[in-house]
Every structure is written in C-alpha cells, then in structure tokens.
C-alpha cells in the first residue's frame, strides 16, 4: 500500500508570508529532500563521479535547489510588500477621512446643535405646560370660590370608579325582572310574555323613581330654604310614589290569582285598575307571600337605586363635578409634565450619546491606527531574520546533496562544491515603511468633556424650570387630597 503524500504543488507553491495571520511561513526543506530524492541523487551521481572534477559550474541539481529557494524568498518579499501596501492604504483612507470631516469642527457643531435643540424643545414644552397650568389654576380658583360660597371645609366625596359603583343596579334589575316575570307569568292571562312585560315596567319605574329621589336628596344640603323645601318635597314624593307603586304591584298579582280562580282573566290595564281599587280599600296585607315578595323586592330596588344615585357624586350638588374637573386637569398637567421631564432627560442622553460617539470613533480610530502601525513594525522588523532563514535552508539542501555525493564518489569533488550560493541581499533587505504621523484634530477628549459639561449645565437649568412647575401641582395635591366615597 502506497503512503499518501501531500501533492507537490501544495508545498512547492507555499508563499513565505501569510497576510491574513501576519505570520512568516518556514520552508519545508525535509519535504523537498524527500520528494526530489536529493540525497539519493547525490549518492547516485557520486558513484558515477558526477559532476566531474573538470566541471566548474553548478549542475542542474544545484540550479534546481537554488532557484526554488530564491523563488520562495522573492514570493515572501512580494507578500510582505502587499501586506504593507494594504495596511498603508487603510491608514491613508483613515487620515483622509479625519482631514475631510475635521472632527474638531464637527464636534463643536454637534454640541451647539444639540444644545439648541434641547433649549428650543424645552422652551416650547414649558410654554404649553404654562397654558395647562393656567387652565388648571382657573379650575382650582373656581373650586375654592364654590367652597367659600357654600362654606365647605371638607373635600369632595364621590366614587373613584363609577362602573363599580353602579354595577349592582343592573344586577338587581335583572333579579327583580326575573322574579316578577315568574310570579306574574304563572297567573296572568298572557302567560310568560305578559309576565315579562309587566315585570319590566315595574322594574323600570322603580329604578327611575330611585334615581330621581337620590338626585333630589342631594339638594337638601343647599343653604337656600326654598331649594331645600323643593328637594325634600320631590324626594318625599318619589318615595311615596315608589311605595304606592310596589303596593299596587303586590295587589296586581293578587288580582291575577283571583281572576284565575274565578275564570275571569283580566288584561294588564284591567288588573292594575282593580289592584288600585283594592289597594285603596285595603293597602295591607297582600293576599299571598309571593305577592308580598314581589312588592318588597321592588321596594328594595328603589331604595338601592336611590342610595346609589345619592352617593354617585358628592352630596352637595356640582361640588363633585368641580372637584373632578380640577383633578382631571391636575392629572393631565402632572402626566404631561412627567412626560416632558422624561423627554428632556432623553434629549440630554441623546446629545451625550452623539458626543460620545464622535469621541469614541476618534479614539477607536486612533487606537486602530497605532495597532496597525505596531503590527506593521513587527512584520518589517522580523523580515530580515526570517529571510536569513532562506539562506540557511539553501545551505541545508545543498549540503545534503554534497555530503551524499562526496560520500559515494572516488574522485576529488568539483570546484563549485566550495561555492556557497546565497539569497540576493536586496531581497533580504525589508520593504520600505513610509508611515506619516496620525492626524491630530485637536484634543477631542477634552472638547467632548467640555461638551458633556455644557449639555449638563443646560439640562440643569431647564430641569429647574420644570421643577418649579411641578411645585404648583404638588402643593395643590397636598392641600386637597382626593377622598373616594
């Protein structure tokens, strides 16, 4: 089985320098010796006393070894030169970029622009907030005048969540309607449909009367006597009508039951008329427990609705509305103020990030410039030593050939065996490294530091103006805390 060897083209064409890794590559002389059978060839030619003693010029083996090593040396210098040219081109592009952009002027313009944007944006927002503050203060003055006019020392008392406050009303409306439909539908002439119709009417009347009574009772807190009298009168009237209405509702079911027993089923209007007459003659008791339950459920729904209507807002009419208006304006003002404070901070951070970006870009490019230059110097400084290795490799290969030849020959060695070929000195000399100094666009770090300080100074001034606006709202919140009913 033949041993698998690396194809000759792969190592014979090795470049002496890897530009990607910036590393010099040593020649594989032993592989050359093996692949070209240098020692065997020297021994064979030595046994034949070749080259002869009268030969003064190197033979083809010497030429072959020497040309291969010289070519590797030239390739190495070419690769190193390409690497230097590419690196210098990058440095030139970087220098051209900084000279074209003029980082110092660009940074000054950026700082000035960001400071102007920060100031103009804040000035406009403060102006808008002052308008909202004027609207809020007007609502607050109106609220305070109302308190003084009506001698109110307490804060407004009303539910913070109207939905949760009124939630029980539709629930009990459904309960009353369902109960009334079942109690009336089982005994009425029209059955379930008529029972539901009458139950819906009974429930709606109770809710409307309860809502009206609750609203009227709020006006009993007025100082004006005629308003109080009017409120008490209407409230009592709503309550009386509700009691009578539910009393009649209980008797309506009694009338339906009696008509079902006698077979003289009555229409709803006839049943209500009969129930009205019965109620006048005998208000209480009702004829059955279900009838009493129908009346009591209706009275409960009326009372619950009246209570919810009364407590849906502050007991003193329009006091809660004024307080809510001031609270809404205050919250809107406070929310907008907080949003503007966040926007101010965000603008400050954006300005600092823009300054930091230019500063970091310059410092990173400057570091990249120095790093590239250091790498270039390492490559160039290491070039002579690595190229001298080619002379050693050349001497090693030629010595292997000569030693094998001399060991096998019986005649004197040819004169050229005493000549030591070397790499051309011009090849061993490193390529030129014409590097100019990096561009110096002033002290970017100090200018960036001054920019940070200026942005922070303007931010502090604007923040103070916002904080002065915030004191107005905070004072109001401390003086008039909101209480929920």
Summary tags:
485 residues; two-stranded antiparallel ribbon; mainly alpha; 2% strand; disordered N terminus; disordered C terminus
**Average pLDDT rating:** 79
State the helix count. 14
Number of DSSP-assigned strands: 4
Tertiary shape: elongated
Report on the biggest sheet. 2 strands, antiparallel
Low-confidence parts, pLDDT < 50 over ≥5 residues? 1-6, 478-485
Roughly how many Å apart are the termini? 101 Å
Please compute the radius of gyration using only Cα atoms. 53 Å
| Physical arrangement of strands within the biggest beta sheet | 1-2
Helicity level, as a percent range? over 70%
Structural class: mainly alpha
Note the run of SSEs as H and E: HEEHHHHEHHHHHHHHHE
Strand content: under 5%
Would you kindly provide a written description of the structure presented here, covering whatever features stand out?
The protein has about 475 residues and is mainly alpha-helical. Among the domains are: about 15-105 and about 365-455, no CATH class; about 160-310, no CATH class. The protein is built from 14 helices and four strands. The chain has helices spanning about 10, 30-35, 40-45, 60-100, 105-150, 160-165, 170-185, 190-220, 225-260, 270-280, 290-310, 320-410, 425-430, 445-480, and strands at about 15-20, 25, 155-160, 485. A two-stranded antiparallel ribbon has the order 1-2. A two-stranded parallel ribbon has the order 3-4. Helix 5 packs antiparallel against helix 12 (about 320-410), helix 5 (about 105-150) runs parallel beside helix 14 and helix 12 runs antiparallel to helix 14 (about 445-480). It is elongated. The two termini are about 100 Å apart. About 25% of the residues are buried. Residues about 1-5 and about 480-485 have low confidence and may be disordered.
